[in-house]
Amino acid sequence: MADAGTVTRAQPAPERAVDAPTRASRLRFWRSPADQPRWARPALLAVAALAAVVYGWQIRHAGYAEYYAVAVRSMSVSWRAFLFGAFDPGATVTVDKLAGAFLPQALAARVFGFHPWSLALPQVVEGVVSVLVLYRLVRRWCGASAGLLAAATFALTPIVASMFGHPMEDAALTMCLVLAADAFVAALSGARTGRLVLAGVWVGLGFQAKMLQSWLVLPAFALTWLAFAPASRRRRLGQVALAGAVTVAVSLAWVLLLTVVPAGDRPYVDGTTNDSAVAMVFGYNGLDRFGGHVPGAVRSGFTTPDPATPAGPDDPAAPAESWHKLVDAGYATQIGWLYPLALAGLLVGLLRHRRAGPADPTRAGLVLWGGWLATAVVVFSGMTLTHRAYLATLAPPLAALAAAGIVLSWRALRDRWATWLLPAVLLVQLAWTAHLAGRYAGFLPWLTWPALAAAGVAAVALVVVGRRPGRSWRAAAALGLAAVLAVPAAWGLSVLDRRYAGTAFEAGAGPSGPVGLALDADTTDTLTDPRRRLDDYLLAHRDGARYVAATSSWRAASAFVLPTGQPFLPLGGYSGLVPQPTLAELRVLVDAGELRFVLLGGVGGLGTTDSELSRIMTWVLSACREVPAAEHGGGEELLVYRCGPGA
């Protein structure tokens, strides 16, 4: 640990002239700056290159999460759909989330065409950026060694390695939160208002990607700033209030847009019965996850426990609603390999810096990362997790604290009373790693068990040597740590094998990750022969209508929108419970000649017998003419009805 003596003063030392970047030094980007060890920059570039390979290796097979892929397709062919985050090319209804994470995907699809790899490419870039920024962030706090350890362990965290290789909203959220923390730490040492506001902007952009989940970092930010920023109490309070206002303003920008634009000039807000973006964000995607309800929000059913499946050797995960879910194997193997090291980093850091004053940056960092981690753990433990990718926001604080746990335990060797610390940390980490690996004993046994055996031998050697930490003692400690870290790294690297890479619908690596849940891209890029014949018929008889056809579910619409980008009108939103359009509005479209065909059938949408969708279907069956399958050539999967004049 060459940087063990990293400066921990509150105010950074004045920069030397040699540290000032020049044009020549920028061109030699592979060389470390003067204030870092010579090995730091090359090692960081190697970690970033490894991350790029891991995230991008399966990019051609990234697949689609069908509902969101339709929205990206729509946003890539219609700027109006792009602006409002609409599900369909005609921009009649939004997706049931904020669309910030899908905007880079839509732009990539415009530039490169609509393919699995073009939708996944922005996430690969976001992942590499996250790795690089996390290194800088942790280096400032705990030195270059800790920065590299944090970047590497973060990059190969199984859920992270899978998520950044697929088109998922959580990738953009994770990057924004890492950038927010980077700006926050840069602001903290000098109590710089501008940098703190920038951190708020990044949190707000994270809100655009994944809504309320981005606000999980705010308690840690506020507490750390109020406790450690070198400014008067009044100024600190004012800075927090200003940054908070900016955070809220950026976070709610899209909600404000949907609120001030008249309903007739924008898409209907999915996930609601009252066309309210507030109900969608804070109800359908917010309190509903905790059993609460906001008026106007469709009850999503997320709080209804899924039927518990018997735990077997290949699926030992606990149900998603259990309070202890984060330590159960199905979740912990994706995010929690480093729990002991992270806890050690927090405890050792607080112990060693317990007498430090409020200007101590190490203690401030511990409060920041510990507060972030604690808030996220409490929230995720209490809510129903519908996707494991939510847990990716735990990865930055876990990686930072785990790296600190290793480095601070190593530095504690200077204190003769603490020579037991590193062996103790290693033994606890070894036991936890063996516990998780043992739940999937058949996965990579040629690596897992030799690595754990090596860690065990190293731990025994450390205990036997005891209070004599010489060169051989340090070598044994390094071997033991490398051995236990090799197991989670192997799980992360398993995404290089398509069987363990996860999907665009549900991220996850290794044998506890999902298999075959995402829609195969090969089934969406082209129309099947029956659908092609039906599409040809609808286009030939469209007669200038605004929509090619209306469909009784979003999934039926997706079968045509994904491969063609044509304006089909989905009825009922994602759930089938959204009154968009109403029966009266549909009849107006039919009477005006903007809609001539309605397709009934197919899978998708919950629906009820007491919904606008059911009333529309009843009217179609009674007032429109069924087109025989022999006439449209599309088979009998979908029933085709012609409505209005000529029916």
Task: Provide a descriptive summary of the structure in words.
With 647 residues, this protein is mainly α. It has a domain at 526-642. The protein has helices at residues 23-27, 40-56, 66-77, 79-84, 103-112, 116-142, 144-155, 158-163, 169-188, 193-210, 218-228, 233-251, 253-260, 277-284, 329-335, 339-352, 361-382, 395-411, 421-438, 445-465, 471-493, 529-540, 554-564, 583-591, 612-623, 629-632, and strands at residues 549-551, 568-570, 597-600, 625-627, 639-642. A five-stranded mixed beta sheet has the order 2-1-3-5-4. Helix 3 crosses helix 5 (103-112), helix 5 (103-112) packs across helix 6 and helix 16 (339-352) packs antiparallel against helix 17. The longest helix is centred in the N-terminal third of the chain and has 27 residues, at 116-142. Mean pLDDT is 86; it is low at 1-19, 303-319 and 516-523.
Strand order of the largest sheet: 2-1-3-5-4
Proportion of residues in β-strands: under 5%
Classify the secondary structure makeup into a structural class. mainly alpha
Shape: elongated
List keywords for this structure.
elongated
Topology:
Layout (H helix, E strand, L loop, with lengths): L22 H5 L12 H17 L9 H12 L1 H6 L18 H10 L3 H27 L1 H12 L2 H6 L5 H20 L4 H18 L7 H11 L4 H19 L1 H8 L16 H8 L44 H7 L3 H14 L8 H22 L12 H17 L9 H18 L6 H21 L5 H23 L35 H12 L8 E3 L2 H11 L3 E3 L12 H9 L5 E4 L11 H12 L1 E3 L1 H4 L6 E4 L5
Parallel strand pairs: 1-2, 1-3
Antiparallel strand pairs: 3-5, 4-5
